[in-house]
Each structure stands twice: as structure tokens, then as C-alpha cells.
Amino acid sequence: MRRFPLLVANWKMYPTVSEGIVIANAIKKALEQIHHVEVVLCPPAVMVPMVHETITAAKLTHLHLGAQNIHYHDTGAFTGEISASMVARLVDYVIVGHSERVKWFHETPYETNQKIQAALRHRLTPIVCVGELKKQANAGQEVVEKLPQLLKGVERDDIAKLVVAYEPVWAISSGDPYAHGAATGEYVQQAAEQIRKLVEPQTRVLYGGSTTASNIAEFLDQPNIDGALVGSASVKAAEFITMCEIASEMR
Ligand code: PGA
């Protein structure tokens, strides 16, 4: 099933607050002219209310806001954490289980699963990240073991609503010792084919890892890929806008 491509901008902890506002404004302005693509901006938590104000004024139905992380409890003594119920007033999406949360904050599959359940309880669309640490001979082999743990107990109806981001950790531009640039379209297609067997036909499957304006077409061209989770290129407004234009032309 083909829909408009979905591009998720994961700003990570890259921009300053003032840079974030400039980037959000530039993307908003560009999307007034670019259609047939869905965009989700995921700024750092402190910028969410400001970016919310910026993009709601534009009333664009194809531009949405997402959080980069949530805690799975609704309230409690969890210093530094933000619950799904807190962000639900402002955002529609939330990234869960990103490999950087796993690597630096030791997030477990159980916690990611609880975050998915919390997001769904508050009508947020989880963007569930999954990927292998090292490149494999059989793309998708590790992912088919990991994904069922993350989706344990999630109803089929809810699986249909969520987004799975296939993010091979070795392909993310993080400077990791295993990192060696984006995967190939063929490799990603093979992994996404395995992921498709575990989800519903309506579930959107994205690719993430070193996507840029130069390689995005290769991934969007794959029949099992519905879009991309873009990291470092998403804070370069001009490049991200070019990626949106490419995606919109490939619908
Ligand atoms: P990258 O990040 O595009 O900078 O590789 C992708 C991600 O981690 O979501």
C-alpha cells in the first residue's frame, strides 16, 4: 500500500533554541508549496511548545510535531523525565527505542514496549526504532528477533497505526566505531520485507541512517519503504526541504 512518503526530522540534541525556531519556520514556509509528503518535526523537548506555536499558526495538515522520547509512567518522582500525557497536548508522534536511548541511557526492550503502550494510551503515534548493531549477511535477521519484543502485547489495530523505523545502528551518522554510512536500498528493502511480515499492511515502515538529499530517492524507491527518519540532515533546513521536494515528487 503506497501513501504519501513520511519524513521524520529527528533533531536530536543538535540545534540551539534559536536555530530550532529558524529551522521550523523555514520548513513550515517551504511546506506551504510542497505537498504529497507528510512531515513530522521532532525537536528537543524544550523547543516543543515554541515549534508547536510556529507550526500550528500555519494550519498545514501535512506538518506535524513529535517528541524524541517519553517516560512510560503518567506521573511520579522521575526527575528529568516527561510523560506521554504531558506532551500529548502538543505532539502527535513520539520516537521510542532509538538506538541512542539504548546506547547512552540503557533503555531496555521492556521499557521501549512500555513507552509504546503509554504513547498509544495517550493517542500518540509511536515511531518504533529497531535495527541491528553490525551489518549482516542476511538483512533483517536480527530485527525479526528484536521487533516482537518491542511490540509484545500491542493489539493488531494499534500495530496498524504505528510507524516502524528500521535503523541499522551501523548506518547512523553518530561516529560509532561500526558506523560506515547509509545502507543500500537493496539491503533496506530486504530488511523491510522481514519487518512487513511482523506488522500490519497499514503500518508505515521507514528507513533511517545517514539519509541525505543525495541518497533519499534510493530508499523511497523501495516498495516496502514509506519514508525516512532523518537525523543530522534534518537540521540543515535547505537540505531537509530538498528531501521533502524529492519525496513529494516520488509519491
Ligand atoms: P542520521 O540519524 O540521519 O544522522 O544518521 C538518523 C537517526 O538516528 O534517527
Number-wise, the strands total 8
Largest sheet: 8 strands, parallel, barrel
- What would you call the structural class? alpha/beta
User: Runs with pLDDT <50, length 5+?
Assistant: none
Q: Hey, roughly how much beta strand do the residues contain?
A: 15-25%
Number of helices: 10
Bound molecules: 2-phosphoglycolic acid
Radius of gyration: 17 Å
Helicity, as a percent range: 25-40%
Averaged pLDDT:
95
Between the first and last Cα atoms, what is the distance in angstroms? 12 Å
Strands of the widest sheet, in order across it, are: 1-2-3-4-5-6-7-8
Shape: globular
Order of helix and strand elements from N to C terminus? EHEHEHEHHEHHEHEHEH
Describe it for me?
This protein has 251 residues and is an alpha/beta fold. The protein has ten helices and eight strands. The protein has helices at residues 17-31, 48-58, 84-87, 99-105, 109-121, 143-150, 156-161, 185-196, 216-220, 237-249; strands at 6-10, 38-42, 63-67, 93-96, 125-130, 163-166, 204-208, 227-230. It has an eight-stranded parallel β-barrel, surrounded by six helices. Helix 2 (48-58) links the parallel strand 2 and strand 3. Helix 1 (17-31) runs parallel beside helix 2 and helix 1 (17-31) runs parallel beside helix 10 (237-249). It is globular, with a radius of gyration of 17 Å. The N and C termini lie close together (12 Å). The model has no long low-confidence stretch (mean pLDDT 95). 2-phosphoglycolic acid (PGA) binds at residues 10, 167, 172-173, 208-211, 229-233. 2-phosphoglycolic acid is lined by residues 10, 167, 172-173, 208-211, 229-233.
